[in-house]
Amino acid sequence: MGYQMFLKLGGKQVEIPVLPEKLEISSPGHNETVTVMGIGEINKLKRKGLREVSFESFFPAHYEPYVTGFLFETEDSGKTLLKPIDCIRTIQIYRDTQQPIQFLLTGTDLDINISMGIEDLSYDERAGEVGDIYFSLKLKEWKSYSPKKLTLTKDNKVRASAAKRPGSPPASKTHTVVKGESLWAICKKRYGDGGKYPQLYAKNKALMDKRNKGTGLPKYTIYSGQVLVL
């Protein structure tokens, strides 16, 4: 499964189509320095603060090889699944619900799946890049503060019920290539539109480029038995 980022609320989700150059994660501490008579200063350790995640990226108006998320159909189809400004509006709607979202980062050692609140969202459109929306997003960890159910165990210990995680990484769909298939044919079969083959290539670029290296064959060449991420 490749490196992917999602913002999820209920049954809706926005995939970050262009992965940010830097993902900043901070976890502030609330330790307290106090002075004790006869000892001097000591560090009184306390629980860590809420984690914060911030990053910058942009929602592109047109498909490019660096786009990892399937926000678009190709220009040949004449359709756009989700315009950049619609992505921004969706995030704004998430914030307006005053409910926590689920932030998911998969495919790296930093795998994250936590509930967060949208602290800040700023965006702009730049000269020469009409339609592209650049944005900066800051998220802060959210913890449920609703009452927990307490149960008494047989050995007279009190146990609090653990909170369930409301989200999970989207299931990764795959396709195993059979003899005679092409990217166009696979996209026609699985997406209903063969013109989406550049997006399918982008999803599997590392795998396909490695296999085709030095063969002199087109970069879109695939081989029987290869497992492609859809």
Overall shape: it is elongated
* Residue share in β-strands: 25-35%
N→C terminal distance: 10 Å
Low-confidence stretches: 72-80
Instruction: Give the SSE string.
Output: EEEEEEHEEEEEEHHHE
Helix content: 10-25%
Task: Give the strand order, joined by hyphens, for the main sheet.
Answer: 2-1-7-8-9-6-3
Mean of the pLDDT scores? Answer: 81
Secondary structure class reads alpha+beta
Secondary structure tally, helices: 4
Radius of gyration equals: 23 Å
Main sheet? Answer: 7 strands, antiparallel
Number of strands: 13
Account of the protein in words:
This protein has 230 residues and is of the alpha+beta class. Helix content is 16%, strand content 31%. It has a 7-stranded antiparallel sheet, with helices on one face. α2 (183-190) crosses α3 (197-203). Residues 72-80 have low confidence and may be disordered.
Entry summary:
The chain has 4 helices and 13 strands. With 230 residues, the protein is α+β, with helices and mostly antiparallel strands.
Secondary structure: elements and pairs:
Elements (H helix, E strand, L loop, with lengths): L3 E6 L2 E4 L7 E4 L5 E5 L3 E5 L7 E8 L24 H13 L4 E6 L5 E13 L8 E9 L8 E3 L5 E3 L13 E3 L6 H8 L6 H7 L1 H8 L14 E3 L1
Antiparallel strand pairs: 1-2, 1-7, 3-6, 4-5, 6-9, 7-8, 8-9, 10-11, 12-13
Helix pairs in contact: 2-3
